[in-house]
Write a structure and sequence with these properties.
about 210 residues; alpha/beta; Rossmann fold; 7 strands; globular; Epimerase family protein SDR39U1 isoform X3
């Protein structure tokens, strides 16, 4: 609806920024994805992102268009961290499934910063990966870092069968599988991260 309204507007906006997700890229324990990597056609979530981005695409070039594919957003007052804090504070946290899957994350301040940069910098267009530069973080490493930030152990794994039973097969995929996503174009576009490293990001979130 927004894309249609923009296309029909007598005066087009200068920029149109859309946020989707890194679910566009196929989960892998070995592959590395940047903004030019293929994807978008292998499961429910990747197809959802593809259709989402296609629905928002504007005809012509009168409006500068940017798509930010976000990773897991870390921030206070809810989101991914909100669901994790209680078990981790109780010393019951740990890796999900094998823990080997990549965990592409971004601090909420940096996601907002990328959106602002995309709106304000006239040279920015196309796809930007909204993830932190520390793209090699695995789920097990994230669990250890969150436990360390809270001063709690984090070694009790959550079996994949339990995750599937609680969240259902489709949603469980987002927790049990992951992608190594790098923000190559985001960095090349000149964005400077406030929280490029996981430890500092978690300390700010739970502080």
């Amino acid at each position: 609806m927004l894309a249609r309204a923009i296309a029909k507007a007598p005066r087009s906006p200068q920029a149109w920024v859309l946020v989707t997700g890194v679910a566009y890229y196929q989960p892998s324990l070995t592959a590395e994805y940047d903004e030019d990597s293929p994807g978008g056609d292998f499961d429910f979530f990747s197809n959802l992102v593809t259709k989402w981005e296609a629905a928002a695409r504007l005809p012509g070039d009168s409006t500068r268009q940017v798509v930010v594919r976000s990773g897991v957003v870390l921030g206070r007052g809810g989101g991914a961290i909100g669901h994790m804090l209680l078990p981790f504070r109780l010393g019951l946290g740990g890796p999900i499934g094998s823990g080997h899957q990549f965990f592409p994350w971004i601090h909420i301040r940096d996601l907002v910063g990328i959106l602002a940069h995309a709106l304000e910098a006239s040279h920015v267009q196309g796809v930007l990966n909204g993830v932190a530069p520390a793209s090699s973080t695995t789920n097990a490493e994230f669990a250890r870092a969150l436990g360390a930030a809270l001063g709690r152990p984090a070694f009790i794994p959550l079996p994949s069968t339990v995750v599937q039973a609680v969240f259902g097969r489709e949603r469980a995929i987002m927790l049990l599988e992951g992608q190594k996503v790098v923000p190559r174009r985001t960095l090349a576009a000149g964005y400077q991260y406030s929280f490029p490293e996981l430890g500092a990001a978690l300390k700010e979130v739970i502080g």
